[in-house]
Design brief:
By secondary structure, the chain is mainly α. It has 22 helices and no strands. α13 crosses α16, α16 packs across α18 and α19 packs across α20. The chain is flat and about 75 Å long.
Length: 514
């Protein structure tokens, strides 16, 4: 069975819209009207937005020093977000920022140590504004679902009105480095924790964590997909469907699935070896001299060792430390052989990402197909999810590169990731589900569920807790099936003992063809 092919079209960049800090009015900053949808970037956009960066009056203006600095910081943050959306983080220079924000270079360095510190400040500001907007909306009077609907609408409206800022919040700035990724993780975690405190039930330690992470993860993925495709204007219209999907989850996990949600590694996870069997194979060379191995076999082995070495190096040292000499040395190939396979280290990274996602998708679909006909759709989904998690736990380096490090690379790695997620969502869609469940399922549910589960996987892998994933598989099965079956039937499926793995051989590990 093959997933429906989805063509990835290059995103159409919407015009950068205004990012106004909450205290902009108090600081005397001018109001920032949203940019016209679809407007072009470049000098014309700068002309339209010049009022957004208007200098404060010179001479005696009666403003306190703190107010002046707040206004300058706000203008620099807005300028950075606009320029990141237009050029990418690495191409933004301090001179560009100071010119657009109408702030002198000495003033910039009096306020920020460097561009990275400004970026982290801008990210924190966006995260706080997003949380404040959504949580304030949740405080309205009414039922839980009514309040969720208002809060969801507020989030979607904010994302549509300020797509560049929300893009930075949801998937960070490519090339900004590990500090930016850590800031992103902290801000998203704080957002979820703040939301958790507003729920209408005491947060049982074993209940709310995974449920909230799936809901918020699904919302983020749905929003991020539209932002990347230049379709932010669709988000306000999706708020009712997202609310309906989120409302399908109970506040508490069923008692049979109650398990403490921990953010800490277990002792078993600490002791687990960092490399998988495939990663360790990356160290070995083929026999030298004359041999009977075919050229195709040799090239296949070399390519596999290169992508495995790439994944292992990134897992150990991070993407910034990845170099071609180390890849070649770890893979046991010459520099010339490397360049025959890949033009750059980024191409090797993308090759490793494709291998990891190809393997994950293949294991999942094979398990699904093995159970679909005889045991039904729900059981097939449950066993497919088990197979996916078992694969990720067995390949920690590839799992980290494919799911976590993607956000530090380039937009094309997110395109590969998005295509894979759409492939997974197909198997939760109406074409695959069994009819007659009697539950009204919003059309957004497959995409949101896959996004939410993917964010849970990201959470565990990013924190070095990949060995813990198999233990929470029943809870993830329940959270996957609930919107389609209802809580009771989903819990029944989640509690079924796992079947023996029907997959006798490892799927083809060669990188998929472009």
């Amino acid at each position: 069975m093959q997933a429906r092919k989805t063509e990835i079209k290059p995103p159409e960049r919407e015009a950068a819209s205004t990012v106004a800090a909450p205290d902009a009015a108090a600081a005397g900053a001018p109001a920032a009207p949203p940019a016209a949808p679809g407007a072009a970037n470049g000098s014309s956009q700068r002309d339209r937005s010049s009022d957004r960066y208007r200098r404060l009056p010179t001479g005696a203006h009666g403003m306190a020093r703190e107010e002046v600095e707040r206004d300058q910081r706000d203008r620099l943050r807005r300028a950075l977000i606009e320029l990141i959306a237009e050029r990418g983080y690495e191409a933004v220079r301090i001179a560009d920022l100071t010119k657009l924000a109408h702030v002198s270079r000495p003033t910039f360095y009096a306020l920020y140590k460097d561009k990275e510190e400004l970026m982290l400040s801008a990210y924190e500001d966006i995260a706080k504004r997003t949380a404040a907007t959504a949580l304030k909306a949740y405080e309205v009077q009414g039922s839980l679902q009514d309040r969720m609907k208002v809060s969801m609408q507020a989030f979607c409206d904010l994302a549509a009105s300020d797509p560049d800022a929300m893009s930075l919040f949801l998937f960070g700035a490519f090339g900004a480095g590990p500090n930016a990724l850590q800031q992103r993780a902290r801000s998203l975690e704080a957002f979820e924790q703040s939301a958790e405190l507003t729920r209408d039930s005491l947060a049982a330690a074993f209940a709310a964590g995974l449920t909230t992470k799936v809901i918020f993860g699904g919302i983020r993925e749905v929003a991020a997909a539209r932002l990347r495709a230049g379709r932010a204007s669709e988000l306000p219209g999706l708020a009712p469907e997202l609310t309906q999907w989120a409302s399908s989850y109970a506040l508490m996990l069923p008692s049979a699935l109650a398990k403490p949600f921990s953010g800490e590694k277990s002792e078993h996870a600490r002791e687990q070896a960092a490399e998988s069997l495939r990663a360790r194979r990356a160290h070995g060379r083929l026999p030298g001299g004359r041999h009977d191995l075919s050229r195709d076999y040799v090239e296949r082995s070399q390519r596999e060792r290169i992508v495995d070495a790439t994944a292992a190096i990134v897992a150990e040292k991070g993407l910034a430390a990845l170099t071609i000499p180390e890849i070649a040395s770890r893979a046991g190939v010459s520099h010339e052989t490397f360049y025959e396979m890949y033009a750059t280290k980024h191409d090797a990274f993308v090759g490793a990402q494709k291998v990891g996602l190809h393997q994950a998708f293949t294991f999942t679909v094979l398990a699904y197909s093995a159970f679909r006909v005889e045991d039904g759709w729900a059981r097939a989904v449950a066993e497919a999810l088990r197979s996916l998690i078992d694969y990720l736990a067995s390949e920690p380096a590839h799992a980290h590169l494919s799911i976590v490090d993607t956000f530090a690379a380039t937009p094309d790695t997110l395109a590969v990731r998005d295509d894979t997620l759409r492939g997974f969502a197909y198997y939760l869609g109406p074409e695959e589900r069994e009819a007659g469940e009697g539950i009204e399922v919003p059309a957004i549910a497959p995409e949101a569920v896959v996004g939410g589960i993917w964010q849970v996987l990201h959470h565990y892998i990013e924190r070095g807790m990949i060995a813990e994933l198999p233990a929470v598989t029943p809870q993830l099965i329940y959270l996957t099936l609930t919107p389609f079956l209802g809580a009771q039937r989903a819990a029944e499926q989640a509690c079924i003992e796992p079947a023996p793995n029907p997959l006798a051989a490892e799927p083809d590990s060669a990188p998929p063809e472009d």
